Amino acid sequence: MTSSLARTLFQPLMLFFLASACAPIEYTVVIVEASEALEAARMAGAACTQSQLDARSPVTASRPAAESGQELASTESRAAFEEAVPRCAAPYEYYKAVEYQSKAREEVGFSDYQAALKYARASRDHARKAKKIAETGEADIPAAPKTSSSSSSSSSDSSDSKPADKIEKDVRDTPISDDDWDLVHDASQEGR
To answer: Which residue in 1, 142, 108 sits closest to 9, CA to CA?
Structure first.
């Protein structure tokens, strides 16, 4: 009888320990896949240099170059330089993957393997997306929904009032329950 009781208790405990040990192993596999995907995306041209990011930014694009006069003299040198510099094809996806990978490693430091696994998967997925965009040159941007011109013109002709007039509601006309009134009253008394 003792052996059957021990077996009954032992099996669920072993399943629990095996299940709890899977998260660190799965995290290790996924974070390695994420690192490989990030490197593949970087090699495909998804990453950017700081000067490329500055040129894309609306804030820094209008600034003059810090050191003008550093331009390349010949077109051959310029072509060789452009081949060596990343293409900057998918910076948003690439750097999102980098940040997710960093967050995954941070969560492992707190032994939160479930959260780390979630961030590692997100890093891997964004790195794969960055590589795909860098290789094909096309982002998965959904098309804007098509609107018919007849429905938009008829709706604007049917009412002369502003849309805000339709939505606006006077809060003073809304009934307030006694419980809500007590909360408001108590909050106002605490402030004194």
So the answer is: 1
- Rg of the chain over CA atoms, in angstroms? 29
Q: Please give the DSSP secondary-structure letter assigned to residue 89.
A: S
pLDDT higher than threshold 50 for residue 34: yes
Question: Do 47 and 88 contact (CB within 8 A), yes or no?
Answer: yes
Cα(95)–Cα(73) distance, rounded to whole angstroms? Answer: 32
User: Is the pLDDT confidence value at 33 over 50?
Assistant: yes
Q: Which amino acid is at 140?
A: D
Contacts of 91 (CB under 8 A, 6+ apart): 46, 47, 48, 52, 53, 56
Measured distance CA(85)–CA(40) in Å, rounded: 16
Kindly state the tokens that stand for 40. 């593949």
For residue range 166-177, what is the model confidence (pLDDT) as tens digits? 555 554 555 666
Cα separation, 75 vs 77, whole angstroms: 5
Helix (H, G, I), strand (E, B) or coil at 139: coil
Render pLDDT for 97-111 as a digit per residue (tens, 0 to 9). Answer: 999 999 999 999 999
Other CB atoms within 10 A of residue 92 CB: 15
Would you say 88 and 52 are in contact if contact means Cβ atoms under 8 Å apart? yes
